[in-house]
Amino acid sequence: MKPKFKETIPVFCWGNEIQIGEEDGVAGIIPDPSGSITLLVQSMNGKHTLDDLVQIVQKQFPEIPREDILTSIQALNQEGYIEDASIEPSQLKDYDRERYKANINFFSLFTSLEESKYAIQEKINNCKISLLGVGGLGSQILYHLAALGFHNIRALDFDRLELSNFNRQLLYSESDVGQLKTEMALKRINQFNPNVNLSITNCKIGKPEDVYQHIEGTEYVVCVADKPTLYIQNWVNEAVVKAGLPMVSGGVLNTRGRFYSMIPGETGCVQCHVDSKKHSDHQFERQLNFMEGMDFQRNNAAISPNVAILAGAMVNELLKLVTGFPKPIALGKMMEINFFTLDTKEISRWEKNSTCPICHSTRSNRAKTTSTEATPL
Ligand SMILES: [Zn+2]
């Protein structure tokens, strides 16, 4: 073991004290009147073993016992400030370490001396994602997934590119107008990150089986498909719960973005949400019936920066589901982001309904558990 202060955490040694970090929740100040902690911290550069560090400190401060030095190192470890520089990645090559360098630095914020930051990147590289929709939200989400290093992605859409898409669909080019979005997404993602194995399906979802066929064999689902407006969520829900796959789903309203996540067998599903709304809000069912009767379709007022905010929030939630670092925030909850104020709040939450017929259809072995926490690495 070769302890190293994490490169992402700045350390400032000011005479009698050490300031570590600069963000709330990370920053700490350690009094150091003798200068021994400063010497220890400065010596933790990833080149010295624990025994080396004890020797270095005791050479200048012979009165400090070995146990006290090891206790100090363990205290820094418990605060999450240090990592083990001797841990090597098991799969990542030099190319991957360079391409995903900032990712790995970010993941290092969640690891300790005993854990590998590389394992988080490797887990992402190996993870299989289904993406439903590569329009406004989906095309930005696809970019984020490729940038994070999700190397196994299936994307589904049926639409062709129109000129009006280009106020927010940054993945495409005007010369692609009239082309299938999935095929243009494949072309662009191959250029952006050739390590991504993107398989595409041109399909207009018309029933749960269409979704099931697409997602079967993958591990996580991101749903931003929004047509037909009132039915797509139910079809996707039925397929995702049956397959037992965790999902993040969301959409853009005029001035707000909404998203939720679910783990079949652990959290409630969309049907559970609808049932709980019907139970708590007597107007809800009447409104739903009215909208179905008028074949409700939402007008699109999505502008690029707002789409980017929601796409980022949704991919962050997915990252939390996949890695467990930190915990997901939207499991069984509808989160709403106000694009004007950037306030993010929970607007409703729902539990798994024990009589929900959809939830009963899940293949998830999580159904037997009661935990709603993501499984860490
Ligand atoms: Zn349910």
TrEMBL record:
According to the entry, every stretch annotated as the THIF-type NAD/FAD binding fold domain falls at 115-357
Q: Which domain of life is it from?
A: Bacteria
InterPro entries referenced in this protein's UniProt entry, alphabetically: ThiF/MoeB/HesA, ThiF_NAD_FAD-bd, Ubiquitin-activating_enz
Does the keyword section mention Ion transport? Answer: no
The protein's GO terms of the molecular function aspect are: nucleotidyltransferase activity; thiosulfate-cyanide sulfurtransferase activity; ubiquitin-like modifier activating enzyme activity
> In the UniProt record, does the keyword Cell inner membrane occur?
no
GO CC annotations on file: cytoplasm
Question: SUPFAM superfamilies annotated for this entry?
Answer: Activating enzymes of the ubiquitin-like proteins (SSF69572)
What are the UniProt keywords, alphabetically? Answer: Nucleotidyltransferase, Transferase
Please report the name of this protein according to its UniProt entry. Answer: Molybdopterin or thiamine biosynthesis adenylyltransferase
- Organism expressing this protein natively: Marininema halotolerans
High-level lineage? Bacteria, Bacillati, Bacillota, Bacilli, Bacillales
